[in-house]
């Protein structure tokens, strides 16, 4: 699933002047929104999604397109986020019982 981060995204304001980058919480919000758009993934994480782990590997700059890939296991919905070929984040949401 691809998500475009516009040049004027409000999260860039003040984060950081002259070297804007997408805050981790904003990146995770985009990932969660992508999960919730997919009925099967949304059902897997339930009504109160719980983030099990997240790693931020590389900065996301204005105008980037995030490519989010999901995979499921018995205990988690895993995600990997790339910009082009560069990995920028990974982690997982715990599955609901």
TrEMBL record:
Membrane-crossing segments per the record: none
Family matches, as InterPro entries: ApeI-like, HotDog_dom_sf
Pfam families given in the database record: ApeI-like (PF22818)
ApeI dehydratase-like domain: residues covered: 3-91
Protein's recorded name: 3-hydroxyacyl-ACP dehydratase
């Amino acid at each position: 699933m691809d998500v475009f981060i516009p040049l004027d995204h409000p999260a860039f304001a003040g984060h950081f002047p002259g070297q804007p980058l997408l805050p981790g919480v904003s990146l995770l919000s985009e990932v969660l929104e992508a999960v919730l758009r997919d009925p099967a993934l949304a059902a897997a994480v339930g009504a109160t999604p719980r983030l099990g782990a997240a790693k931020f590997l590389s900065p996301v700059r204005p105008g980037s397109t995030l490519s989010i890939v999901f995979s499921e296991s018995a205990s988690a919905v895993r995600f990997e986020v790339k910009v082009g070929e560069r990995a920028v984040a990974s982690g997982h949401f715990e599955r609901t019982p």
